[in-house]
Design a protein that fits this description.
Distance between the termini: 129 Å
Number of strands: 22
Radius of gyration: 40 Å
Order of helices and strands: HEEEHEEHHEEEEHEHEEEEEHEEEEEEE
Strand content: 35-45%
Number of helices: 7
Shape: elongated
Helix content: 10-25%
Length: 344
């Protein structure tokens, strides 16, 4: 009985294998959906499906044995989008042209390796493609947009060059402008005194609905630096008098007196820049001013010293641009006769 069972089992297995092999070699037609986009083989050329969404889904019908159909099914399920790589042999130009579906599929390495000879038909039969050389457009103006802000500022650089496909270069030459939308970045980064220094990306308004991988490069940089001051948020007012004091090391104060120049003004008025809606409320007594006397100054008693006054203002305020305020003085040992006029 056991021998009969083994013999029957062997017959069944061999029969199944023969049937399976025969089934796999039966030819039939089957249709698949294959999504393809186009790219360029070389960086100096642009290639794409011309129409939105810049890729196409082909209905590809294969006439092949079931085994090959199964292999093709596994192939197309391995990735959502295949790339048709345009070589330098493909015709280039700034206008779209029709390319046959079979020629496009021939440029897909995975399908070419599988064998395009199995393809019996493809729909759509042709697709608009764009294969173009890259060009460079020089002297494109940088135009910052400040919105409602009134500013004094300068962009750096103020002109750029743009490398892009030839069909887009023609559009850019008609309107050679790069926009830096700076308003929000300036508002976010401005200091209390209204000054700012921001980096803003450039956009090309004439180029809209760009295809993917257009490879547009703005040279020398794609971000522009804008530095300046918001005029609408700041104001400059004269404040004073401001009391100036000495900042003296103990060892110098113990052995020396400070003799100021007779024409020195220890209570000057100064110009202060700050928030426009708050500067009128700034009390001059909130501003500290001092002159540093250093220990090294004691090594040269009697020698005239000219030193800048240090003004310390509340947060959000700064000295308005102008020449520095200085005092002139010298040191005398305490044992010497006091000078006739000592303003300290």
């Amino acid at each position: 009985m056991w021998e009969k069972f083994k013999s029957a089992a062997v017959v069944v297995i061999i029969t199944f294998m023969i049937w399976f092999a025969a089934d796999q070699n039966v030819k039939e037609e089957r249709t698949y959906q294959v999504t393809v986009r186009m790219v360029s083989e070389t960086p100096d050329r642009y290639a794409a499906i011309a129409e939105l969404p810049h890729q196409v889904t082909f209905n590809v019908t294969l006439d092949a044995r079931r085994r090959r159909l199964q292999e093709f099914s596994e192939l197309i399920n391995s990735k959502p989008v295949f790339e048709a790589v345009a070589t330098r042999d493909e015709e280039a130009g700034s206008k779209p042209r029709v390319m046959s579906a079979r020629d496009i599929l021939n440029l897909v390495k995975e399908i070419d390796d599988f064998g395009v000879g199995y393809i019996s038909r493809v729909e759509p039969t042709g697709v608009m493609v764009l294969i173009d050389e890259y060009r460079t457009v020089n002297d494109v103006r940088v135009e910052p947009v400040y919105g409602e802000l009134k500013v004094t500022a300068t962009p750096e650089p103020n002109k750029v060059s743009v490398r892009l496909p030839g069909f887009l270069a023609e559009k850019l030459r008609e309107q050679p402008v790069a926009i830096a939308d700076a308003e929000q970045r300036i508002r976010a980064a401005s200091r209390p005194d209204g000054t700012f220094n921001v980096s803003v990306p450039l956009t090309l308004p004439v180029l809209k609905n760009l295809p993917p991988d257009a490879g547009i490069k703005i040279l020398p940089v794609s971000d522009v630096t804008i530095a300046g001051r918001i005029e609408a948020l700041t104001a400059t007012k004269r404040k004073g008098p401001i009391q100036i004091t000495w900042s003296i090391p103990d060892q110098v104060q113990r052995d020396y007196r400070i003799v100021a120049d007779p024409e020195s003004n220890f209570r000057p008025d100064i110009d202060v820049t700050g928030p426009k809606d708050q500067i009128d409320q700034l009390d001059p007594r909130q501003i500290r001013a001092f002159v540093d006397v250093f220990a090294a100054d004691a090594e040269k008693p009697g020698q005239t010293i000219r030193r800048q006054v240090q003004f310390v203002l509340p947060a959000g305020y700064s000295l308005a641009p102008g020449p520095p305020y200085e005092l002139v003085f010298h040191l005398e040992p305490l044992g010497d006769e006091p000078p006739a006029a000592d303003s300290d």
